[in-house]
Amino acid sequence: MATLTATPTATSTAPAVSRPIRWAAHAAALTLAPSGLWRLAIAVGIPVGWGAGSGLEAELFPGRWSFYLVALSLFAEGLGLLSLGLVQRWGEVVPRWIPRLRGRRIPPLVAVVPAALGAVAVTMITVSASFHWSTSMAAPGAPTGAGWWLMTLCYAPLVLWGPLLGAVTVAYWRRRRIHG
Predict the structure, then answer these.
(1) Which terminus of the chain is more solvent-facing, meaning fewer CB atoms within 10 Å of its CB: N or C?
(2) Cβ contacts of residue 36 below 8 Å, gap of 6+?
(3) Residue 135 pLDDT > 60
């Protein structure tokens, strides 16, 4: 298991992050925003097309499940924002505001292993879900018409999350392995 080095003021010797990789990291984080906003709309009671018996019909929200939808959206976006650590200084050196660890170099594998596993898992989940989208959206109470299109457009970007995270993770590994 990798541990943080004892150097209290480590400096990064890794080269600058390329513009395309920086864009990919930001895009990875943003792929979660539309589906999160869609869930937040449900949580506050905005009807998005789910009908009776679906569990997401507007009559149930806001309600006791609103907290779950808000928490899920915040958790997912938080995970997405972690991709920014692969292109920012705080992904290489522990930020100064963290007691006892501040300024210490973060071993590349501490970031690469969870990011790579996450990229593979998210890719598998979203690709699988996209193959079953029509079946899921044919369930009783599922949105139709404009509601179907809105939900589909909000969830479609998720298919890009895993590949974008994977590309940023590989770039981080190469940059840190060679120069870090």
Answers:
(1) N
(2) 73, 74, 76, 77
(3) yes
Distant-in-sequence, close-in-space partners of 117: CB < 8 Å, separation ≥ 6: none
Four-CA torsion 52, 54, 57, 59, nearest 10 degrees: 60
Q: Which residues contact 171 (CB under 8 A, 6 or more apart)?
A: 17, 18, 21, 24, 86
* Cα 16 to Cα 46: distance, rounded to the nearest angstrom: 44
> Contact, 153 vs 34, CB < 8 A?
yes
Backbone angles phi, psi at 125, to 5 degrees: -65, -45
Tell me what pLDDT residue 6 has. 45
Q: Give the pLDDT of residue 180.
A: 53
- Nearest Cα neighbor of 116 from 66, 169, 78 is 169
